[in-house]
Amino acid sequence: MTDIDTVSLAAQDPDKNQPYLELGLKDDEYERIREILGRRPTDTELAMYSVMWSEHCSYKSSKVHLRQFGEDPPASDAMLVGMGENAGVVDVGDGLAVTFKVESHNHPSYVEPYQGAATGVGGIVRDILTMGARPIAVMDSLRFGDAAAPDTKRLVSGVVAGIGGYGNCLGLPNIGGEVGFDPSYAGNPLVNALCVGVLRHEDLQLAQAKGAGNQVVLLGALTGRDGIGGVSVLASATFDDAVDGGGAAGPSKRPSVQVGDPFTEKILIECCLEIFQAGLVTGIQDLGGAGLSCATSETASHGDGGMRVALDKVPLREASMSPLEVLTSESQERMLAIVEPSNVDAVLALCQKWGVVATVIGEVTEGDRLVVTWHGETVVDAPPGSLADDGPVYQRPVARPDDEMDALNAATGARLARPVTSNQLRDAVLVMTASPELCSRRWVTEQYDRYVLGGTVLAMPHDAGVVRLADDSTRGIALALDGNGRFAKLDPYAGAQLALAEAYRNVACTGARPLAVTDCLNFGSPEDPAVMWQFAEATRGLAAACRELGTPVTGGNVSFYNQTGATAINPTPVIGVLGVMDNVARRLPSGFTAADQAIVLLGATDEELDGSAWSWVTHRHLGGRPPTVRLSSERALAWVIGSAGDGQAITMAHDLSEGGLAIALVEACLIGGIGATVTLDGDPFVALFSESTARAIVATDDAEMLFELAGVNDVPAQLIGTTGGDALSVAGQFEITLSELRDASESTLPSLFG
Amino acid sequence: MATTPRIGVVTFPGSLDDRDAARAVRAAGAEAVPLWHGDAELRGVDAVVLPGGFSYGDYLRAGAIARFSPVVNEIVSAASRGLPVLGICNGFQVLCESGLLPGALIRNAGLHFVCRDQRLRVESVTTRWTSDYDEGAEIVIPVKHGEGRYVADQATVDALEADGRVAVRYLDNPNGATNDIAGIRNESGNVVGLMPHPEHAIDPLTGPSTDGLTMFGSVLGALVSA
Amino acid sequence: MARVIVDVMPKPEILDPQGQAIVRALPGLGFEGVTSVRQGKRFEIEIDGGDPAAIARQAAEALLANPAIEDFTVHLDG
Amino acid sequence: MARVIVDVMPKPEILDPQGQAIVRALPGLGFEGVTSVRQGKRFEIEIDGGDPAAIARQAAEALLANPAIEDFTVHLDG
Ligand SMILES: Nc1ncnc2c1ncn2[C@@H]1O[C@H](COP(=O)(O)OP(=O)(O)O)[C@@H](O)[C@H]1O
Ligand SMILES: [Mg+2]
């Protein structure tokens, strides 16, 4: 142990050369650390600051933009816990609350798709558990390169199997999500996972270490060399020297991939929930990015004193780990609990019952220092807040790339060849239906358990997932997750709003009342002013739209550096909307449920084809401006569907989004197994494929009542046809049998990905 | 009327559908009694359900470790004395591993986990768990598994078929199971194992049908009249 | 400390979908001449004291292999 | 016709949840002294023509092993 750098060594050797630049810290950041400590940091402290002040943990590039979500939030009386905790908490009535959050695992999923996606699910589930909630469902939003590109099959197969493998083994129903393909994601797929949990108001837990003398208990998996430095740029030769304390025999072997252990997570969840139920903890925090560094400094900083940790007590997978490795390890399936001394035995007994490894590693102290020892030597002695809360904040340069954007916005698709004849229109519907972008997601969703826990009321392929919150209640929640990188590429401000509008509309179409938002902002490098402009625009757009829709952002995640070489992905804000439903028996499916019902199109259709699925699928064209954002119309539409659904005046609702009315009709027919005959007004091509927002189709036995309701709320309503038969017929144009549509829709993904 | 029948639902570390099985038991009108894997004790229950899930993560083989648990020991000996036992999915795998039922369940032919609403035919109604179905009834119950492909040596399969010990059969085989076998029974009909999840077909709100409820009702009928 | 290897293979008469999938995939990757692949499991076990081979054999019989579908072999490593 | 064995094992530094689940279970089954179990895969491959060991090695690199988390060894059977 002689070559471990300690606080006393730091005092003796104040000018030791330290590899802070290699660890991703800037000169002035290093100076600030020296100032905070009043001396040079130890190697272990340096590593801690470097991970805690990394982009991933400190949000240093995004913080100034994310502030607008919290500072001027929309009026809502549902928020119990807002931004800043592990996940936001929303009151849903009956003394119940719901917590939900979406998070990215993009980069690990490119390296090892199965494990990257699996551990992504594991991480977000622990965030929800940390709030004191029982996780009740997951969702996933995925983006890959072109479906036919050489590497796409490896990524799709691995990611889908990994999401399923982990979530299924945890016993969490997967209730929805999305899959997209676009060449911009070829070298950088997006894997965003959402988890939602339910708790009683009084069960809320917070990530804080309070009460001097309280014990710090580490629960779950052994700590290995996983993901050390994964959150910053620590994988440098110099860092290896630092890790090995200079004297160790060569650089240690560090895994490049983390393997998930869902079984360990499952017993950890059940064990923690029993511990919460018994009232045995005063604070709890999951271990995610930056591992123990983050969990100890955050809980200490949010508590009322300091903390002392004996790092050598941490149970290790590999005995030869250094203190720095133990502190920054990102091994999965671990939690940190703060426990009153009199409750420690009870906690350990419950852990024994579930077979969860549990170890007291430290205690809450008076004062305001985080002190970490290693076999009696002090290796860290720092103010926890300086690590957790006082990281650097950057106002990164922002610059709209005028030439590129002006050219892009000018390149409208007005001159693209459009289908004109009945046959051309028919073909276009079939081509769109069969395209990887729009075809059935069954090949994916069949790999996910949607039944476990017994509360799933709607799941794929419906617009949103709906889950009943308790066996003895009719109350439920609806969740949708949406993003559209093409719209955001054309206009990031509108793109973020359109993603929100679509998720909101999806939730509304189940009959639920949209309440709150979570977001995962996937962008390129923040050091590129053009990317930072996209980010600034997207956050500004999202904040404004949330105010207009009355749905606060409760939390989320930022993923930067999504790019291949210098080329960034399409900016992709992925937005989750949560809604509530008083009576889940009234939920509206997305498919037709009976023949001889009137089909009504709600909302107004303009000629809006730039950025549309039609332009992309049939011409690989992206240019012009995205469809108009119509937030007040979205609100009115949601109100009409909610009221009509509650009054049982409509039997289904399906939103219009990618692929417009054509794809909405195809899906409504295929989901319900019931055909439709419709008559189109005006240009049939525009009617079928325009992607004007704030629209939905509904079916009803009582069209009159619906028209009245729509009229009162200023929602345009148009009777377009009738359900029934075994084909989709467009009067005067074409007819396609459901079996032909089904073949087109269902065969694409299996034939691509087997 | 006799006292409410009590049906045990076992929880192993990694059991997932145990709450759901208990819900189905209650929906059928019985009391659900939780049984813990580590207790060598059946708490005087009238029947036992081994629920679905991934016991011990199922990393080695589905059900391989769970079958050594103290509670399974008790179940094996009670089953030989006629206790009705239903193994669902992972529970079926445990029953095969423990030798209460023959054969094994291996990786699905398509190598993917499969979750779908599955059409089935009830082949044997002379079991404690299927007596309320009509013979040959076609039902819809979800399947959701990655290792559900039933296999056994030819002699075993022949014997199952000859003795009418195939309990339920797939109408469109999701996993490549031999002879479309979805579930089997033991000779005396008190032990049934199947891959589909009847506990997820008890309420049209949360499942594709209510066909699964009949399975839990069947055993109750037998218990109440006994 | 002894290291024992237990190899567990599907019985010849039992279907091996994973092995078959590999045989089907190989020609597409440019591998010719592979006529059969069978996929099993390999366990590397470290045992302290006792008769390591005997202990490993018992563990294989009891747990690591399922006699209905699998055969196994045990050998000391090295 | 040659028979080649490819053994694929999780890299030593990579978590092996499968092996760990077995190690945790064994004491309960009366097996003492087992300090570590790692679970990998064993492939038995039959190859007709060419250089069987080289073909197997390439197949292992391309398909049988995942280089991010696994190591493999190849040897001719017998
Ligand atoms: N895009 C975003 N929008 C809103 N809140 C965000 C966003 N990104 C991060 N946050 C919030 O910032 C806080 C820190 O996020 P994160 O580091 O992801 O949490 P954790 O430490 O649990 O991983 C959380 O409260 C999170 O909800
Ligand atoms: Mg967290």
Helix-strand blueprint:
The complex is a heterotetramer, with 1 copy of chain A (754 residues), 1 copy of chain B (226 residues) and 2 copies of chain C (78 residues).
Chain A: H1 7-12, H2 27-37, H3 43-52, H4 55-58, H5 63-71, E1 79-81, E2 88-93, E3 96-104, H6 106-111, H7 113-130, E4 134-144, H8 152-170, E5 174-181, E6 190-200, E7 215-220, H9 237-243, H10 262-277, E8 283-286, H11 291-301, E9 306-310, H12 323-328, E10 334-339, H13 344-354, E11 358-365, E12 370-374, E13 377-382, H14 384-388, H15 402-410, H16 422-434, H17 442-445, E14 456-458, E15 465-468, E16 476-482, H18 485-490, H19 492-509, E17 513-522, H20 529-549, E18 553-559, E19 563-564, E20 567-568, E21 572-581, E22 598-602, H21 613-619, H22 631-646, E23 652-655, H23 660-672, E24 676-678, H24 684-689, E25 696-700, H25 703-712, E26 717-723, E27 727-730, E28 734-737, H26 738-753
Parallel strand pairs in A: 4-5, 9-12, 17-18, 24-27
Antiparallel strand pairs in A: 1-2, 2-3, 3-6, 4-6, 7-10, 7-11, 8-10, 9-11, 12-13, 14-15, 15-16, 16-21, 17-21, 19-20, 22-25, 22-26, 23-25, 24-26, 27-28
Chain B: E1 6-11, H1 18-27, E2 31-36, E3 47-50, H2 70-80, E4 85-88, H3 90-97, E5 104-106, E6 114-122, E7 138-145, E8 149-151, H4 154-162, E9 166-170, E10 181-185, E11 191-194, H5 213-225
Chain C: E1 2-10, H1 17-25, E2 34-47, H2 52-64, E3 70-76
The structure holds adenosine-5'-diphosphate (ADP) and magnesium ion.
Structure description:
The complex is a heterotetramer, with 1 copy of chain A (754 residues), 1 copy of chain B (226 residues) and 2 copies of chain C (78 residues). Chain A contains 26 helices and 28 strands. In chain A, helix 5 packs parallel to helix 20 (529-549) and helix 7 packs parallel to helix 10 (262-277). The model of chain A is unreliable at 231-251 (pLDDT under 50). With 226 residues, chain B is α/β, with parallel strands linked by helices. Chain B has a single domain (6-225), classed as Class I glutamine amidotransferase (GATase) domain (Rossmann fold), CATH 3.40.50.880. The longest helix of chain B is centred in the last third of the chain and has 13 residues, at 213-225. Chain C has 78 residues and is of the alpha+beta class. Chain C has a single domain (2-76), classed as Mth169, Chain: A, CATH 3.30.1280.10. Chain C has 2 helices and 3 strands; from the N terminus they run βαβαβ. Chain C has helices spanning 17-25, 52-64, and strands at residues 2-10, 34-47, 70-76. Chain C has a 3-stranded antiparallel sheet with strand order 2-1-3. Classes of the chains: A alpha+beta (754), B alpha/beta (226), C alpha+beta (78). Chains in contact: A-B, A-D, B-C, B-D, C-D. Chains C and D meet through strand 1, helix 1, strand 2 and helix 2 of C and strand 1, helix 1, strand 2 and helix 2 of D. Magnesium ion (MG) is lined by residues 86, 127, 130, 286, 288 of chain A.
